[in-house]
Every structure is written in C-alpha cells, then in structure tokens.
C-alpha cells in the first residue's frame, strides 16, 4: 500500500495514512475513539462529533470491530492516549468489513478454548501474546541457523516422501506413491548420515517429521519440526557440545531480540538463558537418582526406558537442562554406535529439559559390517536399506549427530502447557484442517 505508515512510526506533526484492524471503539458521547491496530502496535483515532463532518464520524464509528480500515490524518501528541499520540482523521476508508459475529475475540476480553483458537488462527494471532509465540519461534530458528553457521555447517534439505522408516515401524504414515508403498519421513536420520560421507561433512536440516504417534498427548505432534545436526569426525561428546551451543544460542537470541514478545507473554522477569555446561549423567546415574527418590511404584532396572513419570522425577532432581548418556544398546536404534569396550552400552544420549526430552543423538555406527549386523538384530531387512548401507563401503568417516524437537524447545522455553500452542496449524489425531 502506497504511503502507508506503521502505527509505531506515526510521530506528532506528521500527516499519515495508517491501515489495520479496528481493535476497539469507545463512544463517550461528544467524543469517541477508535483504536486501530497493525503489526507494530496500536494508535488512537479521535472523533469529535460536533467538529467533524457527519459522514466521517458515521463511517468511523459504525464500522464493525476487526474490520480492516485505513485512516488519513494529522498525528498529535496526546498524553491521555494509550500510546501518547492520536490521529485526528481527515478520511476513513473501510477496506474490508468484518462480520459482527466473531468466532473468537481478538481483544482477549473473552477467553477461547484451544480448539476454537486453532480453528481460527488468523483471529487468534491478532492477540499480542499469541503473535509473540510465533515471533519468538522465528527468532529461535534464526538464532539456531546462526549457531549452525558458527559451527561451519551446511544447511541441507532431504526428502519427506521415503521408502523406509528409521525410528521404529509402528509410527509410520503410509502413502501410495504411483502405486508403490511409501511413507512420510519420520526423521532425516539416514540422509543426514549419507551427507557426512559426502564432501559436505557437517550438515544441519530444519524440516518437518511425520509420526503416527499412538497417543494424544500435550507434547506429541503428528507433524513436528526437527532440527537435525550431523558431523563427520565427531564423537558423541563433541555432538553434545554442539547441542549445548545451539540450544543456548536459541535462548540468547530470544533474550536479546524478543523483549517485547516476552513482555506480552508475562515472561520478562523469569526468562533466563541456560548458562554453562549442561550436567551429563549416565543412564545408570539417572536410574539411581530416580530410584533413590522412591517416587516410582516399581524401581527401574537396566534396559528400561524412562517413562514420562520417571523423566519428571529426574527433572525435579536435576532442575536444569541435562544429558543422559551411555544408554543400553538394546533400547537405542541400529544406527547408534556401541562403546568399543562394552557393546552392551551405547554412545546414544538424550538432552533433557526438566519437564521432557528435547534431543536424541549419539555417535553412529560407521563400519559397514557392524551396521548390517545391527539391522539384522533389530529385525530390519538390510536389503531395504541398501541405498544407505552401500555408501558405508565407499569411505564413511566416524560421525555423530542429534535431532532436536523444535516445538518442544519453544514449548519448554516459554512454559507452554500444550505443544500445539507452538505450531500455527498443528496436526494431531483429531486435527487435519486447517
Ligand atoms: P478535553 O480535555 O479533550 O476537552 P473534555 O473534558 O471535554 O475533554 P470529553 O470530551 O467529554 O471531556 O471527554 C470524555 C473523556 O475522554 C474524559 O474523561 C477525557 O479525559 C477523555 N479524553 C478526552 N480527550 C481524550 C484524548 N484525546 N485521549 C484520551 N482520552 C481523552
Ligand atoms: P527422536 O525420535 O528421539 O530421535 O526424535 C528427536 C526429537 O524430536 C522430537 N520429537 C517430537 N516432537 C513432537 N512430536 C513428536 N511426535 C516428536 N517425535 C520426536 C523430540 C525428540 O527428542 N533420528 C533421531 C535423532 C538423531 O539421533 O539424530 C530421532 O529422530 O524432541
């Protein structure tokens, strides 16, 4: 729109055209105010009924809330106005009139349940505190990309329609691909590994993953954003260092660049970037700590995965981001390398927020024979993965990496109760549109 001024830039003495949504109309009798909202903020438009053209007053005050309008007029200082300035209109143009029946109140005066909000995201994101989540999400992605750049990574994009799954057979979404069986990819795992053996060596990808999760929970999505890292000539400890750097950078970016958004969410005082090294507990230490609390009905034994309850108990004990290392080989996938001196123990690790798992990773099995054996042990047909395994015959360096759940990072960072709040249009068991 030609000559449009953002409300935040409207300064006393200027003649401006501001455009946006009718946030509120307050009619006090002789004087009335229309609050116009755009992406940068709000501005008051003043109507003095006796002193203004009747048509102008009528247009300005009869317009429905949330209609899109533009207003041209002079900006003046006005201490009583919410932002200290107001516009005295010369003309008001109703560009797109809103229906008086709104499915959701963007002024936030009437609360809406999450499903109603998700069905009406356009209106929902007119609220400052909801918009703030997605501005922060964008900042997280910017900071994460910057952190990967500092680590000399190359950004890659790998296919989302694939012939095989990697993270366990039950969670795949099958599709038909020109008459052939295919799946939505659960993880870029195999592709990112193939690229560390290429001339790229160190890569990252930020992209969707698809999982037909069995349960509907506040921390699982059926389409999530995975932040994946993989590097040649890294072991699991170096991969953990990179993970710390990326997660800390995300927090720092938000602390530096999202003060207004944190205020909109009421988090300006409590938001803190995690500092220093995250504690690294072995799986055995973790079991001991959990069992020592006596809070689980049954103590955990070697080989058990950590239940949600166990994660919470441990999170309470540790109280900050931490790693769990040295997991039993039997509960880690085929591509995770075992320790050379003890093949019962893997180099796999998880990185945890006190409330949930954020990352899985590890050093990878790069030796062809061991890799093929691992497939057979997990009941997978190595032939179906030949496109992957054969590259391990032509010079595959030792390597390590991890996958970080983007929405879980944002959810835990902002203390959101439901992961769906961190996604514009979440996919879950009940939700396929919008
Ligand atoms: P003014 O100070 O403009 O002469 P007023 O005393 O004539 O205002 P009204 O015009 O009836 O009173 O205004 C009603 C209410 O609106 C008052 O409480 C006044 O303080 C408030 N008000 C008037 N102008 C503004 C403004 N530009 N911004 C915010 N509030 C205003
Ligand atoms: P994993 O399966 O543990 O590991 O996934 C990595 C991280 O992705 C996030 N995540 C999810 N977030 C929301 N909804 C889901 N349904 C969901 N599933 C996973 C979690 C999890 O920690 N290939 C390995 C990674 C690697 O080793 O590099 C993998 O996919 O935050």
How many beta strands in the DSSP annotation? Answer: 18
Shape call: elongated
Oligomer: single chain
Number of alpha- plus pi-helical segments: 12
User: Mean of residue pLDDT?
Assistant: 96
Low-confidence parts, pLDDT < 50 over ≥5 residues?
Answer: none
CATH topology (fold) name of the largest domain: BirA Bifunctional Protein, domain 2
Q: What is the succession of H and E elements?
A: EEEHEEHHHEEEEHEEHHEHHEEEEEHHEH
Proportion in β-strands: 25-35%
Output the radius of gyration: 27 Å
Helix content: 25-40%
Measure the end-to-end span.
28 Å
Which molecules are bound besides the chains? Answer: adenosine-5'-triphosphate, aspartyl-adenosine-5'-monophosphate
The description of the largest β-sheet is:
8 strands, mixed
Category from helices, strands and their pairing: alpha+beta
Structural overview:
With 434 residues, the chain is of the alpha+beta class. The chain has two domains: 4-96, OB fold (Dihydrolipoamide Acetyltransferase, E2P) (Beta Barrel); 122-279 and 320-421, BirA Bifunctional Protein, domain 2 (2-Layer Sandwich), CATH 3.30.930. Helices cover 28% and strands 27% of the residues. It has twelve helices and 18 strands. The strands form four sheets. An eight-stranded mixed beta sheet has the order 6-10-11-18-17-16-13-12, sandwiched between helices. Strand 1 (15-27) and strand 2 form a beta hairpin. Helix 4 (128-150) crosses helix 6 and helix 8 (283-293) crosses helix 9 (308-318). The longest helix has 23 residues, at 128-150. It is elongated. The model has no long low-confidence stretch (mean pLDDT 96). Bound molecules: adenosine-5'-triphosphate and aspartyl-adenosine-5'-monophosphate. The site of aspartyl-adenosine-5'-monophosphate (AMO) has 22 residues, from strand 11, strand 17, strand 18 and helix 12. One of its GO terms (cellular component) is aminoacyl-tRNA synthetase multienzyme complex. Residues 189-192 are annotated as: Aspartate. One of its GO terms (molecular function) is RNA binding. One of its GO terms (biological process) is aspartyl-tRNA aminoacylation. Keywords: Aminoacyl-tRNA synthetase, ATP-binding, Cytoplasm, Ligase, Magnesium, Metal-binding, Nucleotide-binding, Protein biosynthesis.
């Amino acid at each position: 729109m030609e000559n449009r001024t953002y409300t935040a830039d409207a300064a006393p003495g200027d003649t401006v055209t501001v455009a946006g949504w009718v946030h509120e109309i307050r009619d006090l009798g002789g004087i009335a105010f229309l609050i116009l909202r755009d992406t940068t903020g709000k501005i008051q438009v003043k109507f003095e009924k006796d002193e203004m053209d009747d048509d102008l007053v009528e247009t300005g005050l009869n317009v429905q809330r949330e209609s899109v309008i533009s207003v041209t007029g002079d900006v003046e200082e006005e201490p009583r106005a919410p932002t200290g300035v107001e516009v005295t209109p010369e003309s008001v143009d109703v560009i797109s009139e809103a229906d008086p029946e709104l499915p959701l109140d963007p002024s936030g005066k009437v609360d809406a349940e999450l499903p109603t909000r998700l069905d009406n995201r356009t209106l929902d994101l007119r609220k400052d505190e909801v918009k703030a989540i997605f501005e922060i999400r964008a900042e997280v992605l910017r900071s994460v990309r910057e952190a990967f750049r500092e680590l000399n990574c190359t950004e890659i994009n790998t296919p989302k329609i694939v012939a095989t799954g990697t993270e366990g057979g039950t969670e795949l979404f099958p599709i038909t691909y020109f008459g052939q069986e295919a799946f939505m990819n659960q993880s870029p795992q195999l592709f990112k590994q193939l690229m560390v053996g290429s001339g790229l060596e160190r890569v990252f990808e930020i992209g969707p993953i698809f999982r037909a999760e069995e349960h509907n929970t506040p921390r699982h999505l059926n389409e999530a954003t995975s932040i994946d890292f993989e590097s040649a000539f890294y072991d699991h400890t170096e991969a953990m260092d990179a993970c710390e750097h990326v997660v800390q950078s995300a927090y720092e970016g938000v602390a530096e660049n999202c003060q207004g958004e944190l205020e909109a969410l009421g988090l300006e005082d409590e938001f803190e970037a995690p500092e220093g090294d995250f504690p690294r507990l072995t799986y055995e230490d973790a079991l001991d700590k959990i069992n020592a609390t006596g809070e689980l009905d049954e103590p955990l034994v070697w080989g058990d995965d950590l239940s949600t309850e166990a994660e919470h108990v441990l999170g309470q004990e540790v109280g900050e981001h931490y790693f769990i290392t040295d997991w039993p080989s039997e509960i880690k996938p085929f591509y995770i390398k075992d320790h050379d001196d003890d093949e019962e123990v893997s180099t796999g690790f998880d990185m945890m927020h006190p409330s949930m798992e954020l990352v899985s990773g590890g050093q990878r099995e790069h030796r062809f024979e061991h890799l093929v054996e691992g497939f057979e042990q997990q009941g997978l047909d190595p032939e179906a993965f030949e496109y992957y395994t054969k590259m391990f015959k032509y010079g595959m360096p030792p390597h390590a990496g991890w996958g970080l759940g983007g929405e879980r990072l944002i959810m835990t960072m902002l203390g959101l109760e439901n992961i769906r709040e961190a996604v514009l249009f979440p996919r879950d068991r009940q939700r396929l549109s919008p």
